Amino acid sequence: MPSKELQKAQEFFDQYAPLVPKEELPLFHVTGGIGWINDPNGFSVYQGEYHLFYQYHPYDIHWGPMHWGHVKTKDFITWERLPVAMAPDSEADRDGCFSGSAVELPDGRQLLMYTGVQRLRDESGMTKEIQHQCLAVGDGITYEKYEGNPVLTGEDLPAGGSRQDFRDPKIWREEDGYYAVVGNRTPDGSGAILMFHSPDGFHWKYVTTLDSCQNEYGKMWECPDFFPLDGKQVLLTSPQEMLPMSLEFHAGFGVICLVGAYDVGKHCFCRESVQAVDYGTDFYAPQTLLTPDGRRVMIAWMQNWTTTSCHKNGVSYFGEMTLPRELSIRDGRLVQNPVRELKKYYGRSVTHRNVYVLEEMNLSGIRGRVLDMTVTIRSAGSAGYRTFIMRVAKDGEFETCIRYKRETSILRVDRSRGGFPYDIVHRREFRVREFEGELKLRLVMDRHSLEIFVNDGEQAASFILYTRDSAQAISFKSDGGVIMDVEKHELNIR
Length: 494
Ligand code: FRU
Fold this sequence. Notes:
Number of helices: 1
Bound molecules: beta-D-fructofuranose
CATH superfamily of the largest domain: Glycosyl hydrolase domain, family 43
Helix content: under 10%
Distance between the termini: 34 Å
């Protein structure tokens, strides 16, 4: 029997989501349909399908008491909406069902592990938040909270671990039971990733601290994920309060990837390198799953906590997910490419080869806001070019500008004329590299988003655009000779 809180959320959705004009929503990026979403949760395979839950507040375009919304897909591109999975309706999570993950149990049930939040008053009358880990069990549609909640509390933390910042369990199964990584704040005020073990998914014990921030990469580390990839071990986490470092890490909420080695027997992770995961303005809290054919696929919230008060006028939803991306390791670095299933949706394709680019130009058939387009540039002759500029989502007034400066190897994306009536961060710069004199940029656009993949996924950069739909033009320009290939695919979705 669903609780009154869960019923209310579903009734609200059923009544109001159908009123949201379809043209406002992206075509293949997940939203809540109506209301607010943040982190992806429970991204996992269950009974042969991919399930995705998300932090959800149906009633508002602002964050509020956290529910879990729920969708599923067979191909990462078209998603089926399922009933709201959880509401903050039990003692252990009365102030929010925060982020978490999911796994299929051997008996065919789906286990959700998430952070339950309780707000309490301390002796001085101040509100204090307690975070602990909870479980719910279900059949892929409806879920019941576990009567033994919470299953991991402050009592289970290593000495000095914060009870207020203890969240976002990511669970997976191994031969000897279940493991989960959870973010925690350490006595130095920064973050750490703790690992727990359970023989059955229900009874948990602290194992080790896999890695800790020590005030080097931001402060609190949120939303960890931990998995083997191409002979390496990857630890993903989303630090708060990052300070900028070169062009690799920007200030604020970031996502870092720690690549290293893992001694499974000793549960010992040895970090070898740290890199940014996405170089755009909008990317946070990623989570991964392993597909039956062995692909590690990642999805993230395509937003940024710093800009959540900047809403698009008149729109009744806020927040969307990135396109799921296939991960690999190349030369010790994380590589991300759009899931290959996207190709199944290719519609009309237009190709131009060996185009000489100088004055600003358009190309026939190269325009649109729902597309997958790859642009490859190289120098024309030995003198060559210094700057190459591509403009997308463009009309007379609006545009988003992608500029490559050869002498510094810096790619700059500038959406300050992307339709935002807000003075927020609109520009990101990052260093890219040419391969044999070529730079390859793949752009995936879905109405109000732009995801750029550089050199077959060597870098990715995600941006939300508020540009009106009628701004469909794409142009190219350089200050010297550029020879360019363009391959554009329309996407036939719904
Ligand atoms: C990250 C986060 C998580 C938390 C959730 C709350 O975006 O702050 O740490 O569980 O959002 O909605």
